Amino acid sequence: MKFRLATPTPQELALTGVTALWGGTFLVLHLAMQHSGPLFFVGVRFLMAAFMVACLAGKHMAGVTRREIRSGFIIGIALSVGYVFQSAGLQFVSSSRSAFITALYVPLVPLFQWAILRKPPHFMSWIGIGLAFAGLIALAGPEALNLTFSHGDLLTVLAACAVASEIVLISLFAQGVDSRRITVCQLAGGGLFALLLMPIMGEHVPAFSWIWVACAAALGSLSALVQLVMNWAQKSVPPSKAAIIYAGEPVWGGLVGWIAGDQLPATTLLGAGLIVCGVLASEMRPRWLVKRQQHLTENG
C-alpha cells in the first residue's frame, strides 16, 4: 500500500509544538496533586490562564459577543471536567500511565464527531478504536480479565472522554469567533465551574503551599498557550487530524515520567504501543479503500 505524506501547515506545526509541551505536564500535575485537591487546582490554574490571555488580548476583549461567551463556557466545562478527572486520577496512578491512558481520546474523537457533528467514522477509524481498546486492556494488566480497573484508571478514562468532547466542540464553535476572546471565555468558564463544584463534592481549600502555587502558575501559562493555539489552529485543521497530532502527547508524557523514575513494565509498553498504533491506524487511508469510495460515489 502507498501513502502520500503531505507538507504540514503552520497550524499543524503549531499543534505539534504545543503537544510536545503538553506531554511534559503530567509529572508537574502529579506533583501538584500531592498538595491540592483536583477541583481547586484546576479552578485556580484556569483562572490564572484566563487572566493571562485577557491581558494579552487587551482592548480586543471589549468586543466579546454572546456567542463567544456561550460557546466558550460550553467548551470550558468539557475542558474543566477533563482536567479534573485527570488530576484526580493522578492521585492514584503514575504520570506516565496517566499519559498513555489519556491518549484514548484520540481514537474516541471520530466517535464523538459522529455523535455531535453527524460525521460517521471512516473504516480505518474502527480499526484504530479496536487497537486502542486492546491497549487499554494491556495497560490494565491481569486485572483486565476480571473487568476491574483501578480507581485512578477509571478516572483517567473519563478524562479522555471529556478531552475528546472538547476537541470536537472547539471545531464546532471555532469558526467566526475571535480566538483570544473565546479562549478567555472557556478558561474562565472552566475555572469557575471547577471551583463551584468544590462544596458539592466536599473538597476544601488546601493549605497554602508554594508548590501548588508554582505548579498552577506554570500550568496556567501553558494552558493559556495551548488553548490559544488550539482555537486558532482548529479553524482549519479538522478534529480527526488534530487528534492524530495530539497522539504524540503520551509519548512525551511517558518519556518525562520515565526520566523522573517511573517504572514502565512490559504490559505498559505493550498497551502504549497498541494505543499509538490505534491512533495511527485511525488516520490511515489505504489506496484501495479510497478508490472503492470514489467508485461508490461515482455510481451513486
TrEMBL record:
Highest taxon above the source species: Bacteria
Membrane-crossing segments per the record: 12-33, 39-57, 69-86, 98-116, 123-142, 154-174, 181-201, 207-230, 242-260, 266-284
Protein name: Permease
SUPFAM superfamilies: Multidrug resistance efflux transporter EmrE
InterPro entries with a match to the protein in the record: Diverse_Substrate_Transporter (IPR051258), EamA_dom (IPR000620), EmrE-like (IPR037185)
Localization: Cell membrane
Keywords, in A-Z order: Cell membrane, Membrane, Transmembrane, Transmembrane helix
Entry membrane topology: Multi-pass membrane protein
One protein family per Pfam: EamA
Main localization, broad class: membrane
EamA domain segment(s): 15-139, 152-280
Organism: Gluconobacter thailandicus NBRC 3257
